[in-house]
Design brief:
The protein has 460 residues and is an alpha/beta fold. The chain is built from 14 helices and 22 strands.
Length: 460
């Protein structure tokens, strides 16, 4: 079979793939981009866009129920029509999905191929019984929800983040296994839609990568809305019941079983690398299946790169897009961009949100460096008081010698946006005094950053 030659082959249309295709095609490269499923990857179809659209609906419902606090009343109960909620989500997500596909199909020098791509060698990929050949191949296949080997897992119906966004009803009692970011967002969302919600977490606290005070504060916020939290659930199993599903948790405190009508598994993600034929290309993976890459996202095989969730170097849309930027600039601009140059940052989209950048306090202490830190309650922030959203706090740490910001956690209204003020200063490697002496707009949350930074003390 004669191979069809391209300058570059991109496998997958998640966040990194389409932009890389457009950049390479604009530079005159002949590009083939492969997609076996929905265009746009996780973010567009089952991740950021649909979930944040659903969260927006849940927040609107919550605000309506709080009307009396703001001086108005809603006649009768706020009734949630999940079919309409889902239709709104479908329309917004669908526009993004359609937009990605139309963009790619309209690119000059770019050939879009629908189908599963598999390596035949380090330079050839087979799709739909056709052999494609290129000197440069970019793997951008993303990841999916992990299905743990709990006893009884295959005896009961369960949901993952992918199927949860297509639910068009309000579960009577939603049991969520996993107290990480996905689980907490869906938990608060469905509690506001009207479900009873129980979150089961195997660890001693929620969102375990965060500092303990952040985990504790988020837990209290969720519990105030009526969400039940079960921690230290070491022996989880599932069993079908006449009324729904029984989830054995074997916790130290509380009943040993939670009975629910629906179960959402939110216990992590795995890469979509098992069916690519990577062994035929000689591409190395780690024990979890993530493709091993260097600081410039090249695999162990020259001419093959891995971008996005499948490389284990980030699990967010913004890290995937930054992967594209690194690879494109290095290839086309002879740049020397590196993954290690970026600063970890992300958000948890509960209400209020958590914005995070840089190191946690625990990581700062572990580093052994002298540091200053401050924690300031949102209840003292004028903008939060005005909005009636005073939960949470602002927490910042800085290097005592260089005065550079080491990390921040802003749990509170606007935290996902405000934290980026600090992030930009961190990238500039400027001292915290740049923010402390800046004049910000009133009334905002960001205007309190100078006040907060004026209260730094040694981190104990």
């Amino acid at each position: 079979m004669v191979a069809r030659h391209f300058d570059a082959i991109i496998i997958g249309t998640g966040q990194a793939g389409p932009s890389l295709a457009a950049r390479l095609a604009a530079a005159g490269r002949a590009v083939a981009i492969l997609e076996r499923g929905k265009f746009g990857g996780t973010c567009v179809n089952t991740g950021c866009i649909p979930t944040k659209t659903l969260i927006a609906s849940a927040d609107a419902v919550h605000a309506a129920r709080r009307g009396a606090e703001y001086g108005f009343d809603v006649n009768g109960d706020v009734r949630v029509d999940m079919k309409r909620v889902k239709a709104r989500k479908d329309a917004i997500s669908g526009r993004s999905n359609k937009g990605v596909e139309e963009w790619l199909r309209g690119l000059k020098n770019c050939t879009v191929i629908a189908g599963q791509g598999r390596f035949a060698s380090a330079r050839t990929v087979v799709v739909n019984d056709e052999v494609l050949e290129a000197d440069q191949i970019f793997i951008n296949v993303g990841g999916r929800a992990s299905i743990p080997a709990f006893p009884g897992i295959h005896d009961v119906p369960f949901l993952t983040n992918s199927s949860m966004v297509d639910v068009d009803f309000v579960p009577e009692h939603l049991v969520i296994v996993g107290g990480g970011y996905i689980g907490l967002e869906f938990g608060q969302m469905y509690r506001r839609f009207g479900s009873a919600v129980t979150i089961v977490e195997m660890g001693p606290r929620l969102i375990g990568r965060e500092d303990e005070d952040v985990s504790d504060a988020v837990q209290k916020i969720l519990e105030l809305e009526g969400i039940q939290i079960r921690l230290n659930a070491k022996c989880i199993s599932l069993e079908k019941r006449d009324s729904g599903i029984g989830v054995s948790v074997a916790c130290v405190d509380g009943p040993p079983e939670v009975s629910g009508t629906s179960v959402l598994l939110a216990v992590g993600r795995i890469p979509n690398t098992g069916d690519l034929g990577l062994e035929r290309a000689g591409v190395a993976t780690d024990q979890r299946g993530y493709i091993v890459v260097d600081d410039q996202l090249q695999t162990n095989v020259p001419g093959i790169w891995a971008l996005g969730d499948c490389n284990g170097r980030g699990a967010f849309t913004h890290t995937a897009y930054n992967d594209y930027e690194i690879v494109a600039d290095n290839l086309l601009n002879a740049d020397h961009r590196r993954v290690s140059d970026r600063i970890q940052t992300y958000a948890l989209y509960t209400d209020p949100p958590l914005g995070r950048c840089g190191m946690t306090d625990a990581e700062v202490r572990k580093s052994g460096r002298a540091a200053l830190a401050v924690k300031y309650p949102m209840s003292k922030v004028g903008r939060a008081i005005e909005k009636g959203e005073t939960e949470g706090f602002i927490k910042i740490s800085v290097d005592a010698e260089t005065k550079q910001i080491l990390g921040a956690a802003i749990l509170g209204t606007g935290g996902d946006e405000v934290v980026q003020v600090l992030l930009d200063v961190m990238y500039a490697k400027a001292p915290y005094t740049v923010v402390e002496r800046a004049m910000h707009i009133h009334p905002t949350v960001a205007e309190f950053l100078p006040t907060v930074l004026s209260k730094l003390e040694p981190l104990l």
